[in-house]
Design goal:
The protein is mainly alpha-helical and about 300 residues long. It is built from 13 helices and four strands. The strands form two sheets. The chain has a two-stranded antiparallel ribbon. A two-stranded antiparallel ribbon has the order 3-4. Strand 3 and strand 4 form a beta hairpin.
Length: about 300
């Protein structure tokens, strides 16, 4: 069976349509779950670059729902673990040695997204052993796992900021110092100018900088899809302004958005995975070969992310 980006997009669209009820609510069950990607034989390590990008965008739509409700399923775990493998796994060369701090943040974010992923059990005995293993975790470690998505929600903001500054490195240093002058429009539609040597600390303005000055037409089209999804959840303001608002409210402790971490992680993945397009197939083949060797020896290395359990 040939897996295309159109098929992936269609499955995610069908899932979104199938869960809507006549009174505006959501109903998840057998009718909707038949549209899950894994249930349709889609394995992320087998996909080409275009289909993987379609998966990131499609699964963003089925992840964050109206009311900022989040539903995380095995599709998301598998996607995050595969993307973790290609970006910060042992075979990846995405980050340089000098970027070890950003790489560590990315690794921590991926692990936070996967902390509650459980291996499917096939028998009562496997279920018993899995339950015992969980109960044997240190007390605070066990309960920390329950908060993993709250942790992800907070660290996803510096992750997004560092990802954007890395993409826009021609204009910005990692500390926010402007290297080359640029301008973006503020909320009122007026130019906000950043001179060389000044400081840019607004994640909104960095989002617009990358969107307007860095992204090529293909990446901009992908970002437009992501923006359209965010707008469908809250159309009161521009999606980049909304992300800025989430960040500020979280930073100042006025509220926490524990459901948005996976969505912001996916936005980071849009930038990171897109940048791998020219060498993706070679990287994918190398990683798959390594994973096959690990499976043969029954050993999962400390920097292995895929599969997610």
């Amino acid at each position: 069976m040939t897996i295309t980006s159109e098929k992936i997009t269609n499955l995610c669209e069908q899932w979104c349509l199938s869960v809507k009820t006549s009174n505006g609510g959501l109903a998840i069950g057998g009718n909707s779950e038949k549209f899950r990607l894994l249930a349709n034989g889609i394995n992320f390590h087998e996909l080409d670059h275009q289909s993987l990008m379609a998966s990131i965008l499609g699964l963003s739509r089925v992840l964050l729902l109206p009311g900022l409700n989040t539903i995380v399923v095995q599709d998301h775990f598998d996607l995050w673990s595969w993307c973790g493998e290609i970006i910060v796994g042992s075979r990846s060369e995405y980050f340089s040695h000098e970027e070890h701090e950003i790489k560590s943040l990315f690794q921590a974010s991926i692990r936070a997204s996967l902390a509650n992923c459980k291996k499917p059990v096939r028998s009562r005995e496997e279920h018993r052993l899995q339950t015992e293993a969980e109960q044997n975790l240190p007390h605070h470690a066990r309960y920390f796992l329950y908060d993993s998505f709250l942790v992800l929600a907070y660290i996803s903001f510096p992750l997004l900021e560092s990802t954007l500054k890395r993409v826009g490195s021609i204009y910005l240093n990692m500390d926010g110092t402007v290297k080359n002058a640029f301008q973006v429009l503020n909320r009122a539609g007026k130019p906000r100018k950043y001179k060389s040597g000044s400081q840019c600390s607004s994640i909104r303005d960095v989002l617009y900088l990358v969107y307007e000055n860095i992204a090529d037409s293909e990446l901009k089209a992908l970002l437009d899809e992501f923006r359209a999804h965010i707008s469908s959840l809250d159309g009161s303001e521009d999606p980049f302004d909304l992300i800025y608002s989430w960040r500020n409210q979280s930073l100042h402790g006025s509220t926490n958005f524990q459901t948005i971490g996976g969505t912001l992680l996916n936005l980071c993945l849009v930038f990171c995975v897109y940048s791998l397009k020219d060498n993706y197939e070679q990287l994918r083949a190398s990683i798959v070969s390594q994973l096959e060797r690990e499976a043969t020896h029954g050993h999962k290395g400390p920097w292995s992310f895929y599969p997610p359990y």
